[in-house]
Amino acid sequence: MSPPPAKKARRFFIEELLREPYNELSPRQKTVKDYVKKLDNNVEEVAKFQWVKTKTRFSIEDVPADPEGLLAGIFQHCVDGGVDESRQRGVEPTHLGCTISSQLLSSDIWIPVRQITEDTINSILNRFNDVAQSKKQDGVTLWGEPFTVAVTTVNRNGLHVRRLKGGALRKLAPVHHRVHDQCLIKINNTNNYCLFYALMATLMHAIGGLARQRFCEYLHSQKGMRGKLQRETEEMMDAVNALPGQQSYDAEIYVPRVIDWWNNIKFLKQHKFKAFVFGSSGHYKPLFKYGPEEYEVPIILYFDNAHFHGVQKSGNLFGRPYCLITFDLETMQHEPVDPDFPERRKHQVNFITARVACPDCISSGEWKKTLRGKECQVCGPNRVITFSQKPFRGTEVDKQVETQHPLVAFVKWILYELPIKFETVAYSHFGGRFDMVLVFREIFMEGLNPSLIRKGNRLFEMTVNKRKKINAQVCFRDSWNLIPGPLASMVPMFGLDVHDKPFFPHLANRPSNYGRRIFPSKADYLAAGMMPEKRKEFDRCYCKNDVDILMGGLIAFRGEFLELTKRPAAPSGKAERAAFKTTHDGIDAVRHCITIASACMKHFRTNHLKPGHLALVPEKGYDSCGDNQSDLALAFMEWCYPDEELIMPNGKTAGRIRERNKMRMDIIKAQFPNIEIFWECDIRAMITKDKAMKKTFDEFTGEGGPINIRGCFMGGRTGATKLYHQAAPNEQISYYDVTSLYPFINFVTTYPVGHPKLDVPCEEVDWRRPEDNPYPLAILKVFVIPPRKIDVPVLPVKVDDRLCFPLCMACCKKYPNGAVMASYSCRHDDKQRGWISTCTSLELNAALEEGYRVTDLLRVLEYSKGDNKLFRPYISEFIAQKMHASGFDEEIRGNFAAEEQFIGECMEKFGIKIDRTKMIPNKGKRALAKLGVNNLWGRFSLRNFGLSKTLITDDPGELGNYLDNRKIEITALDMLTPEVILISYVEKKDWIQEHPCSNVVISLFTTSAARLHLLRTMQKVVRTTGCTLLYTGQLTDEFPTHEILEFVSGGSKQYGLKLRKKDAAADSDFDYILKVRGMTLNHDVLNKQGLRYQTFKDRYLEYTLTIRRMIETIAELRHTTIQQLSTFIRKENHLI
């Protein structure tokens, strides 16, 4: 079989990203310069790593009629420029990667660093096209702000593997490690035997039993030990056939020989050794290790500047107190990064505040007091310490450190001046995007490589590992991940007795204002970017204190979480659900957890989940490897062999052959000489050139593929059935919401437990009722046919990453953005209207009740056991705390009979025991309960892939290994110094390892049950008149004190409300609510750009007027109106 003939390449459609204003070509022929302006260009080179990065910034001045060609031209220009720049610098590129970044994009669009091929540009465009499909749903555009295209080129052939070869000690500066001299067994030799001296000296230190003085004599050949180290070293070299006089000795060759000689001959049946060689690049994992898995004596060597030293044996401290620090950085922004772009300013730290506490000080209340004149063993000598360029007065602190480099002084203090016996945990609010980034750079410049947990540009945790007698382990974290929300909100949330968060004049923070009394303008406070409510508070401008609020909030959160999670004794009647029956004093979330979700999960697993009760769900599902093919491969095979009866000549095996299996391929070709091989990149290129092939791929249903569990994990429906309504006299518009939807679902839903049984029937069925489905608790892959008419569709499906609830798949694909057509009707047959659905038995049974049909049963994951009380104790615990902390409602407070009735209803309906004596308002407990009750179920579906990992290295060979590693994709390369780079990468999905609580099935059943609950609520509407609903069921009025006068919607997640208080006078001012997805409605947007409720309403009316005129022109054909919705097309009372 030969591939189809090449056709004209499909253009890259990007109108949705380069959209307004969208201009047609003028009579004068425009050039590229009329559309795109090149703002700047800079080049970074690391010759050591054969790596060049070219960054080019553009702004779009106008959009041509062919925007996809414009973007393709920009990418081609950048790639060609990057390759040319690389070659001019003597680097012949073999690999290339690309990153597109803009302030208008929530995250960068990156193309992995991979080998350069003829389809490199097409790969970039295809990747950008995939992102564009999702970005356009959020209304994202590249119009209006500059964007940057960064092209990274690498010469893989120039990256040589570094060998661990030792020789005589050279007087060179260390590359990147800081090691205390007392940690090393320093080898000072004049010959090239340092590897063997280090091995022998470390061995003697470990098992020789020598006193410190005697070992020193042995090492330095003194007194009675004179020459002993040299003699024993030469004996060992002779035993392992290490010829004397060589220029250097490779550790990867000779260390295994030495370890084998010791284990098998010299110390047979006496000791078991294993060697670890660490490098000087700051990593805390060995560069090389050798020896048995079970060993008794570790032999640790340190490799620096082509020289080996021994390392003394070290131990770990466990279970000790820890030091808690909150800190805040203030930066100057008076200097621009580039004089041509004054709005882009450098952040230069000139003031830092840090507050210190420990568990004992927190328990005793001493954390609020100064440490002047006394010292805490854990906290050190200072409670509050500042680092600033100038001294200040009026604020009491324990110590002021005056320095021209506050950040340098702060890093040295937190690493070296605190007690090193205790772990340090340092928090900053929103620090993952700001404070921690600045601190990371300074820690790196200090000679350390902290380990990072991050996603994109956001840091979750940064850890500097412990080094004996040098520094304690220091973990930097973002407190927003534990307590989401603005810092100022912690004051009312926990009822803190501290000053509120300040407004700070960031732009007035400059050296020229030191020592002066200034009167900052509103612009100095960046007031235009404040949210409206915050702007009102700013206009009243009061004083506040960041680190006091943060420390107070963390301590309050920690105390409440400890109190809630401690188990002094097993709860009566509930001990059988506990993971551990032993008592404990609670979970310290501030020390042990990075996010509130991880804290909730730790509590659930420790105190509520029985061991072995829930399964660890494989990320790739339960199908065997033989069936686990990609959709692209399955679609290609169907395109190659459309006749299902045609026997393929071992085609599947041939399609997966790789170059390294050439011998196996030769055997197959000898039997089947007409075999052809197609790589994924070749298939994708063929799709772009062949419309018929693309059509076949688009229509591929994936019937033969496995169940993708995560692929059927979807959210809920959004959309308006009417875009505008104004309340008439005696008419009411109400806004209702389900109270605590997901906690309620967790409380009442039956969840599958254990591993499922895989069934692959692949048979035709005719299911029309729930009773036809023999699988009560399962995930099923079926072909469903929806009814032709229904008020509220049931089953969701993703079409081009859009969540839809269609009644015809063909129509949904034909009109992906909806349509306004006066004469539309669906004429597709059942096969065209149906689709392959992977869903839970819960939703499938509900769909069968509403008229859906199942015609093919393809695959089933059937669970034999379910648990209807899986989350009930956990939810009850937090709901009870929330009720206790809220107190009795004002309407029943003080009425003993009404209070008793409330307590009885809680126990009768929900099994929640309310203790009257605990019904005392407590803001901190209530805030924690709200966080805990909503942040557990989603943790089960935490992705096992896609999280960025980093590696800091000074070894070009290591970069080469990462480029060759098929398990990962390199997302970015960044230069830290001319000698050291930062490699960012992600693991490919085929090679991921599940995290300890990976169970996407739990989250899948949660969202499935939630959609059904909302469906039942919508079905309880018994009559509609305009926007008035008559319903049965329990919902909460979101605006009980207001009357809604107008409602206007621009589509999904875009709406505005015009309200007035019920007790207000007729001529009183109105209140407005405006929510627009993807936009931050701050003061600048509302006032300078004019996006207010009235503007939003006027745009809608202008749009509908245009549509009405279109419809009127064809009204003679048919008197009907069709309305565009986000997930379906409605014609009269008929969904198509």
Automatic annotation (TrEMBL):
<dbReference type="InterPro" id="IPR043502">
    <property type="entry name" value="DNA/RNA_pol_sf"/>
</dbReference>
<dbReference type="InterPro" id="IPR012337">
    <property type="entry name" value="RNaseH-like_sf"/>
</dbReference>
<feature type="domain" description="DNA-directed DNA polymerase family B mitochondria/virus">
    <location>
        <begin position="430"/>
        <end position="888"/>
    </location>
</feature>
<dbReference type="GO" id="GO:0003677">
    <property type="term" value="F:DNA binding"/>
</dbReference>
<dbReference type="GO" id="GO:0006260">
    <property type="term" value="P:DNA replication"/>
</dbReference>
<dbReference type="InterPro" id="IPR023211">
    <property type="entry name" value="DNA_pol_palm_dom_sf"/>
</dbReference>
<dbReference type="GO" id="GO:0000166">
    <property type="term" value="F:nucleotide binding"/>
</dbReference>
<protein>
    <recommendedName>
        <fullName>DNA-directed DNA polymerase</fullName>
        <ecNumber>2.7.7.7</ecNumber>
    </recommendedName>
</protein>
<keyword id="KW-0239">DNA-directed DNA polymerase</keyword>
<dbReference type="InterPro" id="IPR004868">
    <property type="entry name" value="DNA-dir_DNA_pol_B_mt/vir"/>
</dbReference>
<keyword id="KW-0235">DNA replication</keyword>
<keyword id="KW-0548">Nucleotidyltransferase</keyword>
<dbReference type="GO" id="GO:0042575">
    <property type="term" value="C:DNA polymerase complex"/>
</dbReference>
<dbReference type="InterPro" id="IPR036397">
    <property type="entry name" value="RNaseH_sf"/>
</dbReference>
<dbReference type="Pfam" id="PF03175">
    <property type="entry name" value="DNA_pol_B_2"/>
</dbReference>
<comment type="similarity">
    <text>Belongs to the DNA polymerase type-B family.</text>
</comment>
<dbReference type="GO" id="GO:0003887">
    <property type="term" value="F:DNA-directed DNA polymerase activity"/>
</dbReference>
<keyword id="KW-0238">DNA-binding</keyword>
<keyword id="KW-0808">Transferase</keyword>
